[in-house]
Amino acid sequence: MTWHSGRQAGGKTILVTGANAGIGYFAAEQLAANGATVVLGCRDTAKGDLAVRAIRARVPGARLRCVRLDLADLPSLPATVDALGAESLNAVVLNAGVLLSGPDRRVSAQGHELMFATNHLGHFALVAHLAPILAATANSRVITVGSFAARSERLDLTDLQSEHDYRPKRSYGRSKLAQMLFGFELDRRLRTHAAGTASIVVHPGGALDSLTLSRPPVFVRTTAQRLRRLPASVVLHGKHAAAEAIARAVLDTEITGGQLWGPRFFGLRGQPHREAPHTHMTDLDTAAGLWAASTALTGVDPLVRPTMMRPASTPQCPESS
Ligand SMILES: NC(=O)c1ccc[n+]([C@@H]2O[C@H](COP(=O)([O-])OP(=O)(O)OC[C@H]3O[C@@H](n4cnc5c(N)ncnc54)[C@H](OP(=O)(O)O)[C@@H]3O)[C@@H](O)[C@H]2O)c1
To answer: Which atom of ligand 1 is least distant from the CA of 206?
Structure first.
């Protein structure tokens, strides 16, 4: 048996982006419960510190560290990777994400549309900076967290950053599609290079805070919230359940590169199972165009050693040890 809930990740080090909240928090908790050393990548180290404490309260002896990570600030990423201080990394979970609903287009410090910048470009660049460590680790994995929102979207390679027609929901869906296209393309390119790293894509289905287990002080669900959203649990699930696809993609030795995993029931809730990706998520021309554009926008390529300047050191959470 290659997958079970148990301490099967001893000795593994796994970086989870956006691990201070939501699905990322639960992925970190589940991986720690399986014996992994988990590095929580968080843009606010105080929130990361609370998450470390919450996991330690539930998983005695959990091995946790926290590094500051701001995906929307590309020049900061090399310092984040330096702060990992790791010579090996068994997996990185590209989980952090931002979904904006306001009508005004917002941009990152580098002037990139903020959802595309955070969800796709930041993770693309992070993988590039992590590449030497991943390559030095046998059977390492890159786990990309996509979304069902990508099913109905198509990328416009001439307007990747929604400069001409910004609609927040569409830009979010396109940013998640970009991540999934990248995840599948990364695996194809890794295979071409006969690399030992696998790239796997997951999606969490529909996960509501109101269906999510409390984890004080990180997250507390009120009884009123729970009761109000009870009918939604027929089709959706909580973030603790959504995280299971991630933990499984990291740990199940039968899962191989290029696969897509998501929840069993209508792709929205339930136990993780393998899915066939929609054809537009694996389109070779779109993926190649996106890769070229992402390299141009970030200045790095996950399969070419990074050359960006390294800024000053990045702080770690006080709770990390
Ligand atoms: N929930 C769903 O139903 C659903 C469905 C499909 C896909 N997804 C995907 O699943 C992932 C997790 O979703 P979620 O619902 O758990 O979201 P969430 O509760 O809003 O948590 C998002 C996490 O991302 C972090 N983050 C945001 N911007 C960042 C940045 N610039 N640098 C580093 N970290 C940043 C947040 O940090 P702060 O706390 O500092 O903001 C937080 O830790 C996302 O990729 C999302 O697109 C979710």
So the answer is: 3
238 CA → ligand 1 middle, Å: 14
Q: How far is Cα 290 from Cα 150, in angstroms, rounded to an integer?
A: 15
Positions annotated as catalytic residues are 172
Q: Which of 276, 294, 43 is nearest to 175 (CA)?
A: 294
Q: Is 216 helix (H, G, I), strand (E, B) or coil?
A: coil
pLDDT digit string, tens, across residues 54-92: 999 999 999 999 999 999 999 999 999 999 998 899 999
Within 10 angstroms of residue 280's Cβ, the number of other Cβ atoms is 16
User: Whole-structure pTM over 0.90, yes or no?
Assistant: yes
The whole-angstrom separation of Cα 239 and Cα 98 is: 15
Q: HSE-up of 72 (CA within 13 Å, CB side)?
A: 18
Q: Which amino acid is at 311?
A: P
- Atom index in ligand 1 nearest the CA of residue 179 equals 45
Partners of 116 in beta bridges:
none
